[in-house]
Specification:
Structural class: mainly alpha
Number of helices: 3
Order of helices and strands: HHH
Low-confidence stretches: none
Helix content: 55-70%
Strand content: under 5%
Length: 86
């Protein structure tokens, strides 16, 4: 039983660390991204919990998984990001 708890703690900590590392700086709440990474690294499970509840950006439930467009699909000729790239 003890090994499963240890594996869970390690997995949750690693998940939170990489989730924080992949999040864009502008979306991180409360502190700079580097500070969250250090907190997760040094305080492990408590830091990972803090990231999940206080630092992680809130997801828009109506977006359908599309973070950029807010759920609305734009054709290429109306998408400003696409037009900038060409």
């Amino acid at each position: 039983m003890r090994i499963w708890f240890t594996i869970f703690i390690l997995g949750f900590t690693l998940f939170s660390f990489f989730d924080c590392a992949r999040t864009e700086q502008e979306q991180v709440r409360r502190m700079p991204k580097w500070a969250w990474l250090l907190i997760i690294l040094f305080f492990e499970f408590i830091g990972a919990l803090a990231w999940q509840f206080a630092g992680k950006p809130k997801r828009n439930p109506g977006s359908g998984g599309n973070r950029r467009g807010g759920g609305k699909i734009l054709p290429p000729d109306d998408d400003p990001d696409f037009l900038r790239k060409i």
